[in-house]
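Backbone-to-sequence.
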């Protein structure tokens, strides 16, 4: 399979492992993932955008369809965004729900534009915050539910001190914010 990301059309392989009755799927792309470190690379935004889109692109190649796709932090924040903008209307993707979990709100994925999403979504404020792209904000708005690592953290991040600028977004979407104790 191939994943179109902006001007790139990148290979996407799928590996899987069955263990204890659970099947685990892995996205393969050496251009993005054959690295010595996970973070701090020049193309972090592009790599995680690729991964987020690849997660959705591979679904028709699997022998099942998920009921829920659970995303964690900014690295997978584009999954619910891509789902809503590009995939939800396709028959193979109908009725998939998305959940976004915030582990550390301080790391929001404030990155450059390379995502292959129409500029109108950036200009509308959906993905923009303080002049930058903010992936966590977009995921909060796009997801059907937002969870955190505890009920107290869910309350804390709705305050200016702990919300790192996203507190008003979280308060406005508090109906879908749930703290689940690790």
């Amino acid at each position: 399979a191939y994943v179109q990301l902006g001007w790139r059309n990148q290979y996407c392989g799928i590996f899987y492992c069955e263990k204890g009755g659970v099947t685990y799927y892995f996205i393969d792309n050496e251009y993005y993932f054959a690295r010595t470190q996970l973070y701090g690379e020049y193309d972090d935004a592009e790599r995680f955008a690729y991964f987020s889109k690849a997660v959705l692109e591979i679904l028709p190649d699997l022998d099942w369809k998920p009921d829920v796709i659970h995303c964690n932090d900014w690295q997978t924040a584009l999954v619910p965004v891509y789902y809503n903008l590009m995939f939800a209307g396709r028959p193979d993707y109908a009725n998939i729900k998305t959940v976004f979990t915030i582990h550390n709100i301080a790391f929001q994925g404030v990155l450059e534009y390379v995502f292959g999403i129409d500029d109108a979504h950036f200009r509308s404020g959906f993905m923009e915050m303080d002049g930058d792209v903010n992936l966590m904000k977009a995921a909060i708005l796009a997801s059907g539910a937002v969870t955190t690592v505890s009920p107290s953290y869910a309350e804390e991040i709705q305050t200016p001190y702990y919300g790192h600028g996203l507190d008003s977004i979280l308060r406005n979407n508090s109906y879908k914010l749930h703290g689940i104790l690790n």
